[in-house]
């Protein structure tokens, strides 16, 4: 179960919104091929993560061998017939059980990098190695297969099926990941308990707060036991209390499920929760 954070102002309940409607169309695509992360703005609240940052950092990161290595990665897009150089030589490593944050101004390239790390896109130059796989060389089918087995995605807008309960949403991800039916019940229960939703399992998204919806999305993303969890501004739609709860859940997931988490954020106040922060400015890391 998550460790609930103290000293928070209370949150507001989110009403169902277009995010869920959008999620339905995302779900219609195969689970193995999630949509690329959308680019968004976020409001931040300096109080939001004060207690989260007060949480003790749990187990030490396993530095024996990187889970993912990014070397000299460049990514350009053609905009109006002109090349737009978005990533200009990125080097980074993610280690098992590490919580890594990518911070930087809007448009600096964080989401573009997250899409590459998740195998949703490929670099124009450089290498991305995930375990024994080479994302920069592999074709769509191979990357889809690796994503299905090894990577979980969390979106700012929760990406839940609006007509399914929390339980059914998590179960759906196991079904789409090809996990044997005999494992569904115990795994769904475990994941929803892990994110603190044991008592909300049969609620549908519109019956849950924004923070609870995001925790269902987290349960859904980790259900198939990925080794890497990628989250694009997972707290951006949440108030301070809910955002802090999400960060506490992330810490518990790392500790108990032994996953690596890489997330983007605009919020400088949560940086102390991270094991490592990469700051991106104009397509490069400035503190690497
Ligand atoms: N597919 C694409 N085609 C053209 N331009 C793109 C594409 N993807 C990203 N860009 C551009 O790359 C730049 C970086 O975008 P990106 O979304 O990676 O930034 P970001 O740091 O994640 O921003 P935000 O914090 O607002 O989400 C932007 O100028 C964006 O318009």
Q: How would you describe what is shown here?
A:
This protein is an alpha/beta fold and 288 residues long. The chain has a domain at 18-64 and 95-106 and 151-285: 3-Layer(aba) Sandwich (Rossmann fold). Helices cover 31% and strands 22% of the residues. It contains eight helices and ten strands. It has helices at residues 18-28, 50-54, 110-117, 140-150, 166-176, 184-194, 210-222, 240-257; strands at residues 68-79, 82-94, 99-104, 125-130, 133-134, 151-154, 228-232, 260-265, 276-281, 284-285. A six-stranded mixed beta sheet has the order 6-7-8-3-9-10, sandwiched between helices. A four-stranded antiparallel beta sheet has the order 2-1-4-5, covered by helices on one side. Helix 8 (240-257) links the parallel strand 7 (228-232) and strand 8. Helix 5 (166-176) crosses helix 6 (184-194) and helix 7 packs parallel to helix 8. The longest helix is centred in the C-terminal third of the chain and has 18 residues, at 240-257. The structure holds adenosine-5'-triphosphate (ATP). This is ABC transporter ATP-binding protein. It comes from Paenibacillus gyeongsangnamensis.
Please provide a brief summary of the model:
Helices cover 31% and strands 22% of the residues. The chain is α/β, with parallel strands linked by helices and 288 residues long. The two termini are 34 Å apart.
């Amino acid at each position: 179960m998550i460790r609930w954070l103290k000293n928070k102002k209370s949150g507001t309940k989110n009403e169902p919104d277009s995010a869920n409607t959008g999620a339905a169309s995302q779900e219609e695509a195969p689970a193995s091929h999630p949509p690329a992360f959308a680019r968004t703005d976020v409001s931040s609240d300096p109080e939001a993560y004060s207690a989260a940052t007060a949480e003790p950092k749990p187990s030490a990161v396993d530095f024996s061998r990187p889970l993912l290595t990014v070397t000299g990665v460049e990514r350009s897009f053609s905009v109006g017939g002109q090349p737009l150089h978005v990533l200009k030589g990125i080097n980074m490593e993610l280690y098992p059980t590490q919580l890594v944050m990518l911070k930087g101004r809007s448009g600096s390239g964080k989401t573009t990098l997250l899409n590459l790390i998740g195998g949703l896109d490929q670099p124009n130059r450089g290498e991305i190695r995930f375990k024994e796989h080479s994302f920069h060389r592999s074709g769509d089918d191979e990357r889809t297969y690796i994503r299905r087995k090894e990577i979980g995605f969390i979106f700012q807008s929760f990406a839940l099926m609006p007509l399914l309960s929390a339980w059914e949403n998590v179960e759906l991800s196991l079904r789409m990941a090809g996990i044997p039916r005999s494992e569904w019940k115990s795994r769904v229960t475990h994941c929803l308990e892990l994110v603190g939703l044991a008592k909300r399992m049969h609620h549908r998204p519109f019956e849950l707060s924004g923070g609870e919806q995001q925790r269902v999305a987290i349960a859904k993303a980790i259900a198939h036991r990925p080794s890497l969890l990628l989250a694009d501004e997972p707290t951006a739609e949440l108030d301070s209390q809910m955002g802090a709860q999400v960060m506490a859940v992330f810490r518990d997931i790392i500790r108990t499920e032994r996953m690596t988490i890489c997330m983007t954020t605009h919020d400088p106040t949560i940086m102390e929760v991270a094991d490592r922060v990469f700051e991106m400015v104009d397509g490069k890391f400035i503190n690497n």
